[in-house]
């Protein structure tokens, strides 16, 4: 429906800042939507607990990267405003207010909902006062034999300044009375908990009657902390944890990226402090002392009603009835009926939709290529994989078998840098050619190219995807992958690999859209085309499914499209800086977010194009970094059957969701989309679990 004619005669004027939502506040809102899953009865109990832990990990990274970046701006005296009109100080104030409320809610959910329900299932985290004498004796012995030998208590006095504590490590600050062996009056000490120790200890079955009863490491140390200071009395023991800036800063003119990165990784552990967590019983003079040591203000202090690091709490208990029903991803029929993956790909393009469909065909492509005497070369991009992953092992095998193996590894994949250096070493030792991509541009494209000799000719096989080559992620992230022998697509993939490994000018591609070169401008053209059609009175429609939308030019173009009467549906997992529903600007735009069992990760772009629909899948979100600072690939889906399938299963299905969807309001708030009495409940992910054929 074209609603351009229905727009009000008096246009509302919006300032530049009125048009955008703050990026940092938007991603924090996403984390809040994840937190809400912990109270959602649609999820089994242990899955709800897991969402609580995911929220902790998400928030850690949010402080390490996003908050740290804004604090850095403030430290440098940068008062420039983001597109939404907020200064760094205003952003930090809002973050502090929202994050404090969220963390308070998180622990309330843990203490009042999750833990009591777990206890009903005989899963307990016992407090010190709940232990039987036999359990107390066992814990004393455990402390003496397993814990005390690896603890290093550090007294705080002129000879022992406050220690350098690692990012996100668990620590205890202890108040003391009495004199030490040297006659010194020591009032305070710090005890770091080694990373090597488990944070949760299971009591032996003979002491629990076989029940899942656990004790936190923090409780064990707390109970016996005086033993670490012979002849002295510990009058208080308080957990604390500091979060630091973990973003890496690399000069673009380094001679060897791997060596430079190794040097930088260590600094991540000791970056500027951005958050201090303490237990709620920590006295004021103690947390003020800690704030002073870490150069933080009280707004950076978070008092918690429980363990300071929920991310390391256990949730992997063997209680199948408290988990999701098991799901076995299916393998497409064409692959089952073919003698090998090459003959299957020769028959037709194969679309894989993970995790509903198996990731194994991607590994099969590599494994068969590694062992097939007719295969000459394998080329692949790697962003997050892991040195011990099957994919890396198969690539190494292929190199040892004499294939020409080229791996383009992105060393700067955030928090996977160390793992990717290890991947590079494994492959180089096997004889593969390893390239680190383009300096200044992260290689985020997901591509495999296999070159095979058939009847004296060279034939290419390609895989293009929206997600990383990571078998673990493929079980919990939704992603698309295309297995194809299309000559134009394969030629394009070949040219991009040439671009990544060699030198020369930008190559002209036949079908692929390619960031940082053609993708952004082509997307602008596609939107413009819908605008022209709408103005001509023809149906015009855009559906975009991505993880984030922040790029201002695209946002403004979507506003222009809405004003022209184009119907726009946006399915955005996390950050959305666009404001929908503003009269005269964005009333034809609807934004929703799906948060459920699986992490939504597919990137799909749909343009109606006067009935000749354009459907693209991509590795790129609609963010500045993806479109201008990364190597990304966007591939067309041209097969009519596959187009229809993506539209029905990957887009329309999600637009119908009224169980796990949230709707963005024009004021920037998110509201849960709940089915009404006259609506049939529809869960998009659950539908796909049952419907994929």
What does this structure look like?
The chain is α/β, with parallel strands linked by helices. The protein folds into three domains: 194 residues, Endonuclease Chain A (Endonuclease, Chain A, 2-Layer Sandwich); 203 residues, Polyphosphate kinase middle domain (polyphosphate kinase like); 174 residues, Endonuclease, Chain A, CATH 3.30.870.10. The chain contains 19 helices and 27 strands. Strands 14, 18, 19, 20, 21, 23, 24, 25, 26 and 27 form a ten-stranded mixed sheet that branches. β12, α13 and β13 form a beta-alpha-beta unit. α18 runs antiparallel to α19. The longest helix has 33 residues. The N terminus is likely disordered.
Task: Give a summary of the structure in a few sentences.
The chain is α/β, with parallel strands linked by helices. The protein contains 19 helices and 27 strands. Helices cover 36% and strands 21% of the residues.
